[in-house]
Specification:
This protein has 529 residues and is α+β, with helices and mostly antiparallel strands. Strands 1-19-15-18-17-16-8-9 form an 8-stranded mixed beta sheet, with helices on both faces.
């Protein structure tokens, strides 16, 4: 009786990713905006109203919001010109963690397993769902239980009434566990998001045990692999508020995959920014931010940029938004002239890591249903060196375009503990994953173990996939977002703002929300100044 699952790590910075060298892998084969074709030699002397550092989801959201708000203000006051907005992205395309790669032979590999959560409030405001061509996962999950060859079914009879008997008969959880789900569902369905985040916060493990009285077996076989696949860390390091939030999103909405992979989401937001006149400069990394003296420029800040093609350049900006992951923002701010004493004492926010391995193979797939598969075999048989799998999915079963005709794609997610035990040895990790998969799908064991039949298409290790959202100062568990003119409680220089999922919640929704907050703040600042 579990409502539709969320399993995404959202993630937003490409520099934090590492890649293997998979067969037929087309690095950088992503749709590129026409803005790359612009003559960017003039950037050396460019003066802008707003410079955004970081082209992830949060930075794009900030750019769109600042442009839209300023256009609205300009329409009311014709003497107020539309602002010039420059967005700097260190990679060859925007999107940060919401990116996909495309192999020469027709597979789509999201940079880390990810899904699109349709009920996120900010997503519904920002994106055109019809244009994304979304295909939904089935509600529920399949669960691999210890000692059982056949995958167990966790169904959602509230959405699929014909599954009610399967839900009752499922070996995942006791009958009492299933009854205890009802108060959880009632809570998340009747309370608003604001009310859920106003509740007393504990760690999620304590919440599941003490508030809902779920059994250890149920927690271990379902909630642990599900939630650790979402938030990339053990239950005792997860926020109960974030748990209730994700359950609400899944109770009232669906999870899906876009046509063209998760890259399609970033591309749509980029296109919106381009239409609003945002200038996006790729392969350009911000090296420093300095206050500009009145003799140097009419602008307030000097942003030094490093580019392989153009060397070092300087942009004069009236305002700056730092839309990067936490550690990059911290480093830029602590090196800012005249601001170092405020920043250096601040601790860095822990970051969560995750890995994904993709396999391409001739159809059929071992599972024909578009649904997530969880490792419910228990802590000793999950996220270890020999048994590294946390969850499995066949994206091409959900959205056919993830694989070419006649083929399917398997995505395997591996959490931080198992990654650390393999210490960067992708060959060793691949062997452990194949051996474990072959026990899950014994009828396909020979093909899975044959590297010429189940061909490894890519290995992704995302070292800064998510900021911590429980147990640390300034962690990412604030619905609505923190004040974007502050960073870890320190007030920024006038005209500098910060956004990113670390400034709100460690979700795609949080990244959008934080960017919207920063863009709105800049529009107000420019109008007032």
């Amino acid at each position: 009786m579990i409502i539709t699952l969320l399993w995404a790590f959202l993630l937003s910075l490409s520099p934090s990713e590492s890649f293997s060298s998979p067969k037929n892998y087309a690095r950088g084969a992503v749709p590129i905006s026409l803005s790359m074709a612009r003559d960017e030699s003039s950037i050396q002397a460019q003066k802008v109203d707003l410079c955004i550092i970081g082209g992830g989801i949060s930075g794009l959201s900030a750019a769109i919001t600042a442009a839209e708000k300023s256009i609205q203000q300009s329409s009311k006051d014709l003497s107020q010109p539309s602002p010039s907005i420059l967005l700097l992205e260190s990679d060859s395309a925007v999107g940060g963690r919401v990116r996909s790669d495309f192999t020469d032979d027709g597979f789509i590999l999201d940079r880390g397993f990810a899904v699109f959560i349709e009920e996120y409030p900010q997503s519904k405001k920002m994106l055109d769902y019809d244009a994304l061509g979304l295909k939904q996962f089935l509600p529920g999950a399949r669960v691999k239980l210890l000692g059982r060859e056949k995958l167990a079914c966790v169904s959602d009879p509230l959405r699929r009434r014909r599954d009610i008997f399967r839900a009752i008969a499922s070996p995942v959880g006791t009958p009492l566990d299933k009854l205890r789900l009802l108060p959880l569902f009632y809570l998340v369905m009747t309370k608003s998001i604001d009310e859920l985040f106003a509740m007393e916060e504990t760690d999620t493990l304590t919440c599941l045990k003490n508030k809902y009285n779920f059994s250890e077996e149920f927690i271990s076989s379902f909630f642990a692999p599900f939630l650790e696949g979402v938030y990339l860390t053990p239950l005792e390091k997860q926020s109960s508020r974030m748990f209730h939030f994700v359950m609400k999103m899944n109770t009232v909405g669906s999870s899906s995959l876009p046509k063209g992979g998760m890259q399609a989401v970033s591309n749509q937001i980029e296109e919106k920014a381009n239409k609003l006149g945002v200038d996006i400069q790729f392969e350009s990394r911000a090296l420093s931010i300095k206050p500009a003296s009145s003799e140097e420029s009419s602008g307030e800040f000097l942003v030094e940029i490093g580019s392989k093609e153009r060397g070092k350049q300087t942009v004069h900006a009236r305002t700056v938004i730092i839309a990067t992951e936490f550690n990059v923002a911290h480093n830029l701010l602590q090196d800012m002239d005249g601001f170092e004493p405020s920043m250096k004492p601040l601790p860095k926010l822990p970051q969560r890591s995750v890995g994904s391995i993709y396999y391409g193979f001739q159809s059929p797939a071992p599972l024909a249903d578009p649904i997530l598969i969880l490792n419910g075999e228990g802590d000793k048989h999950r996220n270890t060196k020999d048994l590294p799998i946390n969850n499995v999915c066949f994206p091409s079963i959900v959205q056919k375009g993830y694989a070419p005709d006649g083929y399917d794609l398997c995505s395997v997610s591996v959490c931080e503990k198992a990654l650390s035990e393999h210490a960067g040895d992708h060959i060793s990790l691949d062997g452990s994953v194949r051996r474990q998969l072959s026990t899950w799908f014994p009828d396909y064991a020979d093909d899975i173990m044959d590297e010429s039949k189940w061909v490894q298409k890519g290995v992704y290790v995302i070292n800064n996939a998510q900021p911590a959202h429980y147990g640390n100062d300034g962690c990412a568990n604030v619905h609505g977002g923190r004040d974007c003119s502050t960073f870890q409680g320190v007030v920024m220089p006038n005209g500098v703002f910060v956004c990113g999922d670390h400034m709100a919640t460690s979700t795609f929704n949080g990244a959008l929300e934080s960017g919207t907050n920063a863009g709105d703040a800049v529009a107000r600042f420019l109008a007032e100044s």
